[in-house]
Design brief:
- It is a single chain.
- By secondary structure, this protein is of the alpha/beta class.
- It folds into 2 domains: 2-169, 3-Layer(aba) Sandwich (Glutaredoxin); 210-319.
- It has helices at 2-45, 53-61, 85-100, 120-126, 151-154, 158-169, 182-200, 211-226, 229-235, 261-284, 291-319, and strands at residues 48-51, 68-74, 109-115, 133-137, 241-242, 249-250.
- Strands 1-3-2-4 form a 4-stranded mixed sheet, with helices on both faces. A two-stranded antiparallel sheet has the order 5-6.
- The radius of gyration is 30 Å and the shape is elongated.
- The chain starts with a helix and ends in an 11-residue tail after the last helix.
């Protein structure tokens, strides 16, 4: 009799556990459906969802989750002094908009942004000491190292972000940028200004044949192109890099695979100083110039070339480890 009672007890307990398990599964599914529904609603209003610490904990960190999240961590308040956060935010928005209106759009991938002033606890939990930063949160499993975007090497251009997103989520998106007529308007204004100037000076166009004018213009274009301005335009790197460990600011990228905007400006100034030194050396050779001025120009030109060429080689050694040559500076 006792055995029968025990069997009945076990059957009842098993039945109750089965019912509880079914109810629990249903609750999780309902919770997941509610989360996806809410995220979809927010995404329809704005492609990049604004999140604070609570929303991040609920929709990104907590389970259940059958969707991926691409999250940008930033500090858009001007008081924070993040000079590149606004530009990175614009590129991230372009990526999110391109995905929203692409054939690849589904409710399995969402874009979000967490601002430091609204989610400082999130920054602390992830060990973030600088902004902007981009991270991918997969639907299952733990994040891997590649789920953190290498902004220092790749910049924050929307096309590079799209390639990284495709590697992490297998969602391929073609970037569509809104039409920008600023360049066209500026070009029209410049041509109009140049045409008006030529019309006003139509009776005296000697300046048009001035060798000095064309020399300065040519040197400026060469300096701009050789300093890496086109690379900046394509890759969109940050202006400087802040070390997350000690907060130190670096204006020279430590790797040969990348560069900073400030770095290109520094290189451009160094190249300009070297060019100026060679110009002084060339002018010092002219016999029409007074001998004392020629001596000063020669010494000044030699100092400029020697010092700034040494500085350029020193920076090159810093970026390309193992480069064997140096001059004056190491």
């Amino acid at each position: 009799k006792k055995d029968r009672i025990m069997v009945k007890y076990i059957l009842v307990v098993t039945f109750l556990l089965a019912i509880f398990s079914l109810c629990s599964c249903k609750t999780k599914q309902d919770l997941l459906d509610e989360k996806v529904k809410q995220l979809t609603e927010w995404s329809n209003r704005r492609t990049v969802i604004q999140m604070n610490s609570n929303k991040y904990s609920t929709y990104v960190k907590s389970k259940p989750r059958n969707y991926s999240m691409i999250v940008m961590f930033t500090a858009l308040d001007p008081k924070r002094g993040c000079s590149v956060c606004r530009e990175a935010n614009d590129e991230f928005t372009i990526l999110a908009n391109s995905y929203r209106f692409s054939p690849a759009y589904t409710s399995s991938l969402f874009f979000a942004v967490v601002d430091f002033d609204e989610g400082s606890e999130v920054f602390q939990s992830l060990g973030l000491n600088s902004a902007p930063a981009f991270m991918h949160f997969p639907p299952k499993g733990k994040r891997k190292g590649a789920d953190t975007y290498d902004i220092q090497r790749l910049g924050f251009h929307a096309d590079n972000l799209a390639k990284w997103m495709a590697e992490r989520t297998e969602v391929v998106v073609r970037i569509f940028r809104p039409p920008n007529y600023t360049g066209t308007v500026v070009l029209v204004l410049l041509f109009s200004l140049a045409g008006g100037l030529l019309y006003v000076r139509r009776n005296s166009l000697e300046f048009f044949y001035n060798k000095t004018f064309w020399s300065i213009l040519s040197i400026f274009i060469v300096l701009a192109m050789t300093s890496g301005q086109m690379w900046n335009h394509i890759r969109g790197p940050p202006y400087y890099h802040r070390n997350p460990q000690n907060g130190a600011i670096h204006y020279i990228h430590g790797s040969s695979q990348g560069q900073l905007v400030a770095e290109t400006h520094i290189i451009m100034l160094i190249h300009a100083a070297i060019v100026g030194g060679f110009i002084l050396l060339n002018e010092a050779h002219q016999p029409k110039v007074d001998i004392s001025k020629r001596r000063i120009m020669a010494i000044g030109g030699l100092v400029l070339v020697a010092f700034f060429l040494s500085l350029l080689m020193s920076i090159f050694r810093q970026k390309y480890q193992g480069y064997p040559y140096s001059f004056l500076l190491r």
